[in-house]
What does this fold into?
Amino acid sequence: MADNKEGCSGNTESWDMNSELSQHPQMRETFSSVELKYKRFFDSAGEMHFITSRRGKILDINQAGVDLFRFSSKEDMLVLESVGILFCRPEEGKIFQRRIEAEGFIKDFEVGMRRLDGTFFTASITAGLWFEEDGSISCEGVLRDITEIKQLQEACLEAEKANRELTESERRIRDLNTDILNMLMIMSHDIRGPLVSIAATLKLLMRGSFGRMDESVINTVQELLARVRHLIGIAEDCLGRAHSLEGTTRADRATVDLRQDIIDPVLDEVSNEIELHRITIDNRLGAIPAGCIPISVKMMWLKAVFRNLFKNAIKYGGKDCNIAFGFEDHGGFYRLNVYNSGQPIPEEYRDRLFTKFTQIDVGAEKKDGFGMGLYLIREIVRKHGGDIWYEAKRDGSDFILILAKEPQ
It folds into this structure.
């Protein structure tokens, strides 16, 4: 206790000395200058500055505070019994008072405030206790309107919540798409097996393995076999496209017989359309090599590519057209092509040939389909390190296909 008294005595002596110094004319002038500068800063600050007594009565406030609470003048605020009436909830004012009494300083204390006109806003208060020469205690601080900041923070939280919900929705959609693709692959695989068995049985019938048949029956069986082959092609197409969309294509090195394993089976699938349109097949553009060659595309993918190209050639070449296919070995890759005579694809469609949902009108005939075929086969080819593009010829259309020998 003695130490405290000595401290208090020291402070008293200091105050007395300051009091004596303040009587000196030059010192009074200096004090007045400092006080004037502080007052100018206090009054001109853009944020509310205030001084209150220990009991909460407003001793001084700047114009920014008067404007913030929408009083007509500083005098109207100085007559308020306590700053506590400006708090939206009295208990928050009591909490503020207890904390600053206990800690001596409080920073960024968020509280709801009420204006004179009854409107509300969110404020942030930073304040500290000051011990005056006469032993009294005052509170001096800054009050800021943070309503817009809080609204922005709430908007950010809402946006984050919406983003999480969107991410979750996308995840559910991806899971659903995966389930659909898996179901499509299973269905295509399960359908293809019985169709292959049916095709094999029909071939045996045509060879007379189960007895002699009339010519009319043979023709019916041939037509049925063509339709079954067509269905096999559709099943393989669905299986290949589902794998492509799922992203499960892998560039594994394989050996295939282009003519026997790829081109001839696909031509068999579309043989009815070729016959119906009186189309001539010509392979003189570049002889397909006999036997197996190394390639970086699985047979299923490559059949899907040629199936789409031959169907497009039939569709857009029209009746009596010529369809040709060629092959060139360029060392590290193969260059293949499928050509059809007839009217080239109109120039306005060429830049969009390999994009989704592009349909082409040639002449007066409207072509059916969803416009996904060329887009999907380019995805397949590019995932295997190759590429595909279109070249217009003077008398037809040519699709060029590049395939790597080694996996890319």
